[in-house]
Amino acid sequence: MALHKTLYIGPFIHCKTLNDLDICPNGLIGVDEDGKISHVSRDAKEGLLPAQGGWEHAKIVRTEQHGFFFPGFIDTHIHASQYPNAGVFGNSTLLDWLNTYTFPLESSFKDLERASRIYNRVVARTLSHGTTTAAYYATVHVPATNLLADICKSRGQRAFVGRVCMDRLSPDYYQDESTESAVRDTQACIDHIKHIDPEFNLITPIITPRFAPSCTDETLAALGKLHHATGLPCQTHISENLQEISLVKSLFPTSDSYAHVYDTAGLLTPKTILAHAVHLTPAERHLIKTRDAKISHCPASNTAITSGRAKVRTMLDEGLTVGLGTDVSGGYTSSMLTETREAIFVSRHVAMDEGDEAKLSVEEALYLATRGGAKVVGLEGRIGGFEVGMEWDAQMVRLGAVGGAEEALDERAGLVEVFGEETWEEKVAKWVYTGDDRNTVAVWVKGRLVHSREGFKG
Ligand code: GUN
Ligand code: FE
């Protein structure tokens, strides 16, 4: 789609490294017709118009008072098909949660109309939360998985779309018939995405063995082969829950560890996203680091279905690459802003056992939600920050300006109330701790406006 050259004028904030939150109060970012950042100025007055290239006719988009531009969030692990169950998990833990809530819901996606209603809703909702990229699990169904890819493409969300493979320890009404059918159906979804987005510019297929307990050795090995033959990314779950880990030990008696099961199958590579990683042993972390596989930390889910507290500081200190995932609907929220907050609070619980250095700061958690996530999904240097050459995957944030005490509450800006005396760091902290989707006024992917709220001008 041909876009306008656009100048985004106002404060911009992004994470340069884990600890370096770059705040530019008077910025200007020029985005070209292809949705790429071609100009970044830290002083809007001086740099207002780039000297060459027809910028005098560019469209201009400005922030509101106290507002700022921030990179779009990257949700590195979300089950699109489980969205209707967000918030519904009772007192279950992983294995009974799967049987009670999850498999019955996922099996209903053989009904394409139902799939359409739910998938349209989850893509619209995650965009409204500022999620510009999502790594989705769909279900076993080829038509519904292809539909999810179509919906992401038409709504403009960058997505990795995975057809779920599972050929054992699953209910009769919901599982793959054989290794051959799992591979054939995965290939059918890859072919569909190749057809709608040949270069995988926006939508990329992702090979998705559900997790070791629900895949036979043969299926894991076949998907490992497909992963190597196609060069496509892969995603799965690892070491989420203690009973699950015991089950893996009994199902794979010759394997040294859960991570080793994936390694044996050729599924532990730089293009692998491992969700949860709550109970990894030091040897498993070492193996994952050696293979350069990536970690999706899912704190809301790990608390909700009481899986445990992942040691994010340890993983970061050891050099593992970590991003955040909502894991809907093990996780109750589809909001990456809420997930960021959950990551901070879970780290405080780890700190209560292990010492203050386990605590994640606001800046660090935001890094995981943006630039860390970009590394996890293999898009480092393309998304997750504001630098020349990167793509404009961004959100405009608005905060509430507090006037007199008698003034009506600003419903548009929700709970984030700025009194005007805060530093930028404090405004960002208020957004992370008290904000929600009302604060995300507009969202762009590759320069295309994909969501906006009342009051947005542009
Ligand atoms: N392990 C296997 N399947 C699932 C799932 O759907 N969600 C979570 N959180 N863990 C899993
Ligand atoms: Fe999950």
Automatic annotation (TrEMBL):
Pathway: Purine metabolism; guanine degradation; xanthine from guanine: step 1/1. Its EC number is 3.5.4.3. It catalyses: guanine + H2O + H(+) = xanthine + NH4(+). Gene3D superfamilies: Metal-dependent hydrolases (3.20.20.140), Urease, subunit C, domain 1 (2.30.40.10). One of its GO terms (molecular function) is guanine deaminase activity. Residues 70-450 form the Amidohydrolase-related domain. Binds 1 zinc ion per subunit. GO terms for cellular component: cytosol. Its cofactor is Zn(2+). Keywords: Hydrolase, Metal-binding, Zinc. GO terms for biological process: guanine catabolic process. InterPro entries: Amidohydro-rel, Guanine_deaminase, Metal-dep_hydrolase_composite, Metal_Hydrolase, Metallo-dep_hydrolases. It is an enzyme of class 3 (hydrolase). Catalyzes the hydrolytic deamination of guanine, producing xanthine and ammonia. Belongs to the metallo-dependent hydrolases superfamily. ATZ/TRZ family. This is Guanine deaminase. It comes from Friedmanniomyces endolithicus.
